[in-house]
Amino acid sequence: MAKQIMMPNVLEYIEITKNVSAIEVEVPEELIGKTLLELDFSRKYELNVSLILRKEAPILSRYAEVAFQKGDVILMVGENKKIERFKHKFSI
């Protein structure tokens, strides 16, 4: 709960281990219209997107090929320092 209070733009925060977490955030404006594949997201940010939510409905198949839309939410999993780097880059 304390982590979520300290991260108001993070919709959900789950600590998996001391160094690895999962966070749910709205897709940054800069990524709208692009796909995970186009962005080479996993390699570039060293984070894994496990789920895209669009209008609260999960996109479960071939989501790496789906262009982000305004209001989409992603569930990312990765090392805390990589998550912090992503949040800082996109002012989340």
Helical residue percent?
25-40%
Query: Would you report the number of β strands?
Result: 5
Structural class: alpha+beta
- Count of helical segments? 4
Mean pLDDT: 89
Give the SSE order as H and E letters.
HEEHHEEEH
Distance between the termini: 18 Å
How does this structure look, described?
The chain is α+β, with helices and mostly antiparallel strands. It has four helices and five strands; from the N terminus they run αββααβββα. It has helices at residues 2-6, 36-39, 41-45, 80-89; strands at 10-15, 20-26, 48-54, 57-59, 73-79. It has a five-stranded antiparallel β-sheet with strand order 1-2-5-3-4. A hairpin with a 4-residue loop joins strand 1 (10-15) and strand 2 (20-26). The longest helix is centred in the last third of the chain and has 10 residues, at 80-89. It is globular. Mean pLDDT is 89; it is low at 1-6.
Structure in a nutshell:
The protein has 4 helices and 5 strands.
Kindly list the characteristics that best describe this protein:
alpha+beta; 5-stranded antiparallel sheet; 4 helices; 26% helix
Question: What is this structure's SSE topology?
Answer:
Elements: H1 2-6, E1 10-15, E2 20-26, H2 36-39, H3 41-45, E3 48-54, E4 57-59, E5 73-79, H4 80-89
Antiparallel strand pairs: 1-2, 2-5, 3-4, 3-5
